[in-house]
Amino acid sequence: MSAVETVPGTSTPSRKRSKWDEDEGEDEQLTYVPQPKKRAKPKSIRPAPSASENVDSSRSASPSGSQSTGSTSRQKPTHSVYVPPRTHHPPIQASRSVYSYERLNQIEEGSYGVVYRARDKQTGDIVALKKLKLEEEKNGFPITALREIYALMSCRHENVVGIREVVVGDTLTQVFVVMDFIEHDLKTLLGTMPAPFLQSEIKTLMLQLLSAVRHCHQNWILHRDLKTSNLLMNNRGTIKVADFGLARRYGDPIGVGGLTQLVVTLWYRPPEILLGATTYSTAVDLWSIGCIFAELLLKEPLFQAQGELEMLSMIFKLLGPPTKNSWPDYSSLPLGKTISLPSPQPHQFRTKFPYLTSAGLDLLMSLLTYDPEMRITAEEALEHPYFTESPVPKHPDLFGSFPSAAAGEKRRKPFNSPTAPRGANLNFLNDSNLSP
Ligand SMILES: Nc1ncnc2c1ncn2[C@@H]1O[C@H](COP(=O)(O)OP(=O)(O)O)[C@@H](O)[C@H]1O
Ligand SMILES: [Mg+2]
């Protein structure tokens, strides 16, 4: 009956907030001890083991009671031979409550959700809780939220942020992903650190990023939103890829409309998506990695465009416009014939990156390559000579540590990059806005 109240700029209507995350007063949030009535029956809520335990238990699970009963008296199996036995199904367990965590501070309120730092009341571990965006959902649990959880769980890796569990708030529309807490994100760090990363450090960060992305691709996951604010870094020189909110499986048959073009934050978006491709693949992530590599070198984002057209023209300027040689399929892309290309000109990588070695420049150009078929893969990039030439990658233990803005210090926003294209009201490139 009551009007739906929404807080401008937040993704979640305020009435959806649970008691756990509703109070913004610093003092209150630390002392508030909720007594959730609904969670009074301890038997119905079993602490969920960590997902790694889940995996193990699903593999080695002993037969359940229902399977063993009657095994002596019956000859025929109780289920179809085409259906795997019950023990092969993943264990289904009730999620724990968000009240298992003590809220410490809000790390980030992005356009799509909120991330909190919190303490596990049982173990004392400091964790990060990301509230998933579950808006006025009429068709059950949203596929995007499922994809985020699925992708995080299937891409476990040293350089991917660790998912611990999924917990629920007061209602089933309040779902939080619990992750390891990581001190920094690279975007904030690049804006606040006193000196840029050294070449030896950039190599280590790039190797970690590439090995995480190779792992995701090997597990059939496209990230589709790689950018510095989605790369977390701890105080021990280790990068963790985060924010799988736009991730999805690839390799499955694609629906009639193809894959969505509403992916990858503008500044990191590859030319094939800008030109309307609906059958892109792993190469999209490698383009974004090229932009990140450039950003680490420049200490600011490479392409700071306002819209898709400006983005394309910035790309054309740095790479030189695409040719039949550099991108044979260019003209078959949906917008390939609509856009008038500038007159041929050489690339400007050397002018833009005067201090990079030729091996470094070669890696950068192999990542920022027009044709997705010719773009370097994560696997190949890891073997690139740039990583073996001097200076060699620095050991993560030798990285300096920085004060963590996410752990409570006032953070400074260095620059405002566009958000990932998850909204519905984005301006698409179309014939009408392409005319001069
Ligand atoms: N596990 C974490 N530890 C510490 N900070 C995190 C963690 N996950 C996210 N953050 C912070 O929250 C921000 C937003 O999280 P993200 O998953 O990227 O959500 P969104 O979908 O809103 O972009 C990140 O840029 C980072 O600063
Ligand atoms: Mg993000």
UniProtKB/TrEMBL annotation:
It catalyses: L-seryl-[protein] + ATP = O-phospho-L-seryl-[protein] + ADP + H(+); L-threonyl-[protein] + ATP = O-phospho-L-threonyl-[protein] + ADP + H(+). One of its GO terms (biological process) is regulation of mitotic cell cycle. The keyword Nucleotide-binding applies. InterPro entries: CDK, CDK11/PITSLRE_STKc, Kinase-like_dom_sf, Prot_kinase_dom, Ser/Thr_kinase_AS. Residues 57-75 have a biased composition (Low complexity). Gene3D superfamilies: Phosphorylase Kinase, domain 1, Transferase(Phosphotransferase) domain 1. Transmembrane segments: none annotated. Keywords: ATP-binding, Kinase, Nucleotide-binding, Serine/threonine-protein kinase, Transferase. It comes from the Eukaryota. One of its GO terms (molecular function) is cyclin-dependent protein serine/threonine kinase activity. One of its GO terms (cellular component) is nucleus. Residues 101-387 form the Protein kinase domain. Belongs to the protein kinase superfamily. CMGC Ser/Thr protein kinase family. CDC2/CDKX subfamily. PANTHER family: CELL DIVISION PROTEIN KINASE (PTHR24056), CYCLIN-DEPENDENT KINASE 11A-RELATED (PTHR24056:SF107). This is cyclin-dependent kinase. The lineage of its organism: Eukaryota, Fungi, Dikarya, Basidiomycota, Agaricomycotina.
